[in-house]
Amino acid sequence: MMAAGGGAGSARSVAWGASALLVAALLLSAPSATEAYDSLDPNGNITIKWDVMQWTPDGYVAVVTMFNYQQFRHIQAPGWQLGWTWAKKEVIWSMVGAQTTEQGDCSKFKGNPPHCCKKDPTIVDLLPGTPYNMQIANCCKAGVINTFNQDPLNAASSFQISVGLAGTTNKTVKLPKNFTLKAPGPGYTCGRAMIVRPTKFFTNDGRRATQALMTWNVTCTYSQFLAQKTPTCCVSLSSFYNDTIVNCPTCSCGCQNNGTSPGSCVNENSPYLQSAIDGPGKWTGQPLVQCTSHMCPIRIHWHVKLNYKEYWRVKVTITNFNYRMNYTQWNLVIQHPNFNNITQLFSFNYKPLTPYGGRINDTAMFWGVKFYNDLLMQAGPLGNAQSELLLRKDSMAFTFDKGWAFPHRVYFNGDNCVMPPPDAYPWLPNASPLTKQPLMLPLLAFWIVLATFLAYA
């Protein structure tokens, strides 16, 4: 018995040990809270490619290009800032299409000093209208990079850099390290530079190919948790079959009297509104929002508008509560199970997203029509954009019951918006059995009594 008990105890110990190891492995392999993975854009990243095009007496000339491979997150004004740390004592002799924010200490150089002597330079894009002799292809957009889905011609940004005091062959060049990307604030985490196969360049007629002397890539991924302490948008709901308007959850993006709010707020009719807009901090990137219960710069409202025999209609409204920000090239991503049956769209552009390999088509990206509503004006009478969607009913799944008609997830400019709790969604008037019993049973009893009375009268 003792032996049997010992064997059972040993088996239990082994089982517990195996379970502990499995749990530990799962915890170690699970993504952290700041992990950049997004299930709606699993492969989204910004890739920075360095192509060494020419060797110089003390270094090289390279073209650096940033490609935005994110489906629905762009880099908006005031644009990107790219930084790194040199591996040796490199300097930047000159740049075309971009510039460093500081020159640094170049006192040891005689004659014409380098463009930058800092160990950790910070690079910014040049502005539109830069003289042509200071431009290269894909430069000079004030650091704005759009998504490939929305504007493929402006989904990359490039500059040329001449590096000195560096290696002069692909065996002696040391790759920069500690890359940082601000777009324009925090949120991106960059990996280390990796040498890859040299980039090939083809002539216009496609009959000849040249290649870079050396190429390395850096991949940067985004995390909303790193970008800001609080969310930046929220969702409200309403429907034709229920008078209840479900507002954004209270304090979705911070509270009015809380230090974690996204910025100070001003009442719409406040006499101090204009001075607050024009005062200090206008260009710090901190929003100045209209005082609301949710304190979000952006609110998305989803209204179930009409019900037809074979179709149903939804109105989507985007409202800007930020007095300091015009959202250019904005985009909206919504997940709903009936999006594979979108029939007609009014005043928005639309593209289906298939994050699950094309097996499920339940995610859609919307953005404004150029020169019409692609600019979402700052808070005020014009600070909104709206559209209506006409969807064919899915005979196998369509229902207005239990909140099915409302979206699962909503993103604005790549940030996940705060949704109301599911139990607060507008319900059908007869959805609750508690509302049926007090109304239907007394009425049914009345008709039974009346029928009985008439039968014996």
Automatic annotation (TrEMBL):
Residues 1-36 form the signal peptide. Keywords: Glycoprotein, Membrane, Signal, Transmembrane, Transmembrane helix. InterPro entries: COB_C, COBRA_pln. GO terms for biological process: cellulose microfibril organization; plant-type cell wall cellulose biosynthetic process. GO terms for cellular component: plasma membrane. The chain crosses the membrane at residues 439-456. Residues 232-426 form the COBRA C-terminal domain. Belongs to the COBRA family. PANTHER family: COBRA-LIKE PROTEIN 4, PROTEIN COBRA. This is COBRA-like protein. The lineage of its organism: Eukaryota, Viridiplantae, Streptophyta, Embryophyta, Tracheophyta.
